[in-house]
Design a protein that fits this description.
Elements lengths: L2 E6 L8 H15 L3 E11 L2 E10 L5 E7 L2 H25 L7 H8 L1
Parallel strand pairs: 1-2
Antiparallel strand pairs: 2-3, 3-4
Helix pairs in contact: 1-2
Amino acid sequence: MAIIEVTIRYPNAGSGIKEYAEERANKLVRQFPRVESVRVVIDKQRQLYEADFIVQTRGQTAVGAKELSDNLRSVIDTAAARAEKQLRKTIKKRVTAPRRKKTPKDNVAATK
């Protein structure tokens, strides 16, 4: 089971914002079974909302996505979509990366 942590850094957050962010994080966990943890940080800077999605997968570094906008729900949606896009890209790289062929030098080093 993945750990989902939602942090809201301003006092006047709407009633369902935390639940909405958790729902979007759960969607990422369902789509990518290798996800270990998702951190969502929601902040307000002057008139703009900021959402950060930090997704940690097994055996990889964290994938982060940040978004700024004046609409809170669209910020959460866009940041989650960016994190999803980055996860798909890293998975594709991992699956389609060419294997290094062994050279005769590698075989000699392995036998010593």
